[in-house]
Design brief:
Two copies of one chain form a homodimer. Helices cover about 60% and strands about 10% of the residues of chain A. Chain A is mostly helical and about 190 residues long. The longest helix of chain A has about 35 residues, at about 150-185. The interface between A and B is large, with 75 and 75 residues. Chain B binds a DNA duplex (30 and 30 nucleotides) through helix 2 and helix 3.
Chain lengths: ~190, ~190
DNA sequence: CGTACATATGTCGAACTCGACATAGTCGTA
DNA sequence: TACGACTATGTCGAGTTCGACATATGTACG
């Protein structure tokens, strides 16, 4: 049974075959919004997936001191991915370092607290703008995909919708908190 | 410099002294909503905090084969906590296993996908109800705290507000996703 | 009087994660 | 032509996290 990272790689390889390097790139953009991994995790994990029969590789042309390998998801990998995808995840809480800082923010001066929340708000605003741009691009490229849930495009769109909603929720909360700190300054 | 877990413990000890066991309890409820740790992490971390001068302990009466220790935050601990609290956290993405599953959900039958999202919605609804209950209790117990950001009560309330907003955002997204899968069934 | 649960602290090993080190070809630019 | 950035794959060690094992008393319930 692969680890969560293994399933993240399978979820990408089930769409299209890729090299380890390309998987690393994908860990920045679409999937990077909710999962990340460095290349030093990816390469050993690919070897583990292969020894378990979940992926298979072929050597292709490429530069560098070692073979360039393109990995593809096998039928067994696809089955394992589908089974894992519908299992309910552990209901453990998601870790949120900012909440921890907010929980301790009363120990620091209000001006510094304001600066922290303002910076967070700006970061969320920037991510929201990025998601809105992707949303427009997505609608133009896959006009029908957003209505058929059995396509990989719909699945990607569903995660984007969640991202949009999440950033708006966070911005709203930052605004509420800033209004409270504002009141206290007067 | 303590680890993030160390600061989580300091954030609790800056409010009131506690034993390792009591810290473990706190890692379930208020703080457990955004951070967790098992006792096997807490006890070694307390020893590390003490050797760094951030906390201090006194032996108190208690059962069991070993001394019962009550830890308190020192002035140095309090300073370190305040400095850490206003530092911007790394902008790395928060990991979300459910998003990963949704990203792969197109490989599974729609009925199973529906069941997964319905279960998630129910879990969020339950947490929302819990937070709403805490909100009412909080308003009754600390009527003035929610307007003064320099109190530990306000800080706890701010995290609760974020939790309420988060659960509503997730429920809204689950509803949207369910409506899409519904349409597809017909 | 036995059983189970809560109080209370600790160690150990396996797995996961992350940054640093290592290697080497290609391509654009100053 | 030299320098840096990008393609491409891998190892290593330190730190984090988690479940399992270990120990022993107080208290409530049947």
């Amino acid at each position: 049974m692969p680890s969560t990272l293994g399933f993240a790689l399978l979820a990408l390889l089930a769409r299209t075959p890729r090299t380890g390097y390309e998987l690393r790139q994908a860990m920045r953009e679409p999937i990077g919004f909710f999962w990340t991994a460095s290349h030093s995790q990816i390469y050993p994990e690919l070897a583990r997936l292969e020894s378990g029969g979940f992926v298979r590789h072929r050597v292709i042309d490429g530069p560098g001191p070692r073979d360039t390998k393109r990995y593809a998801c096998t039928a067994a990998g696809r089955r394992a991915l589908a089974a894992w995808a519908i299992e309910a995840p552990e209901p453990g809480p998601e870790r949120d370092e900012l909440m921890l800082k907010v929980y301790a923010i009363w120990t620091a001066p209000p001006a510094a607290a304001r600066a922290l929340i303002e910076a967070q708000r700006a970061a969320h605003e920037a991510r929201l703008a990025r998601y809105e741009q992707l949303d427009v691009e997505f609608g133009a490229q896959h006009p029908t995909a957003i209505v058929d849930p059995s396509t990989p495009e719909f699945a990607a769109y569903a995660t984007l919708r969640c991202g949009l909603s999440y950033e708006r929720h966070r911005i709203g909360w930052c605004d509420w908190l800033l209004s409270r700190i504002e009141v206290a300054r007067r």
